[in-house]
């Protein structure tokens, strides 16, 4: 009996000793669960974003933090306004100075009274469809960047918001006919817009803006420049614009920030380039508007600005005497 | 005046999603929109942490800065709110937000954005406090009733804290002191340009 009690005492004693021994180091060395845990600043330094798993259906909300919106904000509110302001106001200033010093480029030989077809009905339709869309897209787009500081204080919150809402709808929907127009312009006029040797001479002689008229084919180097600005610029704004219109189809938020940066820079430069195009096509040059207006230009205008093209048309009409109005077919 | 803030104690969050559910229910948030979500980082690995995130109601809020129609405003309590009457659904606040807070209902043309929706710190919108219009657009206005956001009130482990920034920072500091560790106030540096030393 005594030995049994002794055994119990021994077991209890040993158990208590073991408990004491095993417990002591645990309380002395405190457990720190954050030692191995993920840390915010470390994750941000590594990837500049923090992403994890979410159990809600919207898996894109797994991005917890992406502070690069700060750089985008700086671009949108400061950098872009400078780029756009300098490009557009600068272009207006250049045009104004040019108009005041050079004035309208006249047809030196005067009007001949005879005309030649320059652009077919289809070509003019495509041009004006694209042009109309462009003007509305440009105004509604500039409104997003410059409306808040310039227009909002003038017309107030409600009116500005209402206008901006319609401008957004117009911007979204008119992107489709605009894109179609850019594609058609690309296909329709690619033939006449491949840069060639004659363009170098034309550029060297200042495009005839200041003194003489260098020879030029159907499209001179300046027009070829406009063509490629429309095709490349239009392609870029369309591609980046659709990326923003269809969020997350192409990329996440960083991709959309980049798309907005590219879209807006190309767009303001595009607007500046088109201001020059509009100027030279209207009050900048006598006889130029008719090309896209009635589609027929004065022969003397054609001789001065597109001599090689006129020669080509004349050669064709001589070759096909049976056709009384050869230029119609020649214009394609 | 108090400066309202959220603080998620990541060492306490157990990813139960009660805050997410509470928010959706309290404000009758429509399908496809989550004003709050719980993100688990390093899921299933050692050192995994879950953080409940919504709008942080930033100081010098990026959303407000980039909005083309200036529809955001900050209340006297430091809560960042917006007017759905002015919002045009352009998506710019979404590009600028570091926390993915702005949400857009997919309405109308090709799944494009409707009026932006986000966490209001249970403070409604510009309409009269507690009005039907305010509830329909922004959800409940608990702050006007003297209550704090429901997500934090519902938090089962008291991980998510909402209230005056100084008070919740003090609570968190005391916790960290007592237990001897803390992984910091997630998002504070980005949202408020300050952090709580742990």
Automatic annotation (TrEMBL), chain A:
Transmembrane stretches, start-end: 82-105, 125-146, 173-195, 226-249, 261-280
An MF annotation (GO) of this entry: formate dehydrogenase (NAD+) activity
Membrane disposition: Multi-pass membrane protein
SUPFAM superfamilies linked: Transmembrane di-heme cytochromes
Gene3D superfamilies associated with the record: Transmembrane di-heme cytochromes, Chain C (1.20.950.20)
UniProt subcellular location: Cell membrane
Pfam family, any one: Ni_hydr_CYTB
GO biological process: anaerobic respiration; formate oxidation; respiratory electron transport chain
Gene Ontology CC terms: formate dehydrogenase complex; plasma membrane
Annotated protein name in UniProt: Formate dehydrogenase
Native species: Bradyrhizobium nitroreducens
UniProtKB/TrEMBL annotation, chain B:
Keyword Metal-binding: yes
Key word Cell wall biogenesis/degradation present: no
Pfam families with a match to the protein in the record: Fer4_11 (PF13247)
Gene Ontology MF annotations: 4 iron, 4 sulfur cluster binding; metal ion binding
PROSITE patterns: 4FE4S_FER_1 (PS00198), 4FE4S_FER_2 (PS51379)
InterPro entries, sorted: 4Fe4S_Fe-S-bd, 4Fe4S_Fe_S_CS, ET_IronSulfur_Cluster-Binding
Keyword terms of this UniProt record: 4Fe-4S, Iron, Iron-sulfur, Metal-binding
Source domain of life: Bacteria
PANTHER family linked to this entry: PROTEIN NRFC (PTHR43177), PROTEIN NRFC HOMOLOG (PTHR43177:SF3)
NCBIfam families associated with the record: FDH3_beta
Name of the protein in its database record: Formate dehydrogenase
Native source organism of the sequence: Bradyrhizobium nitroreducens
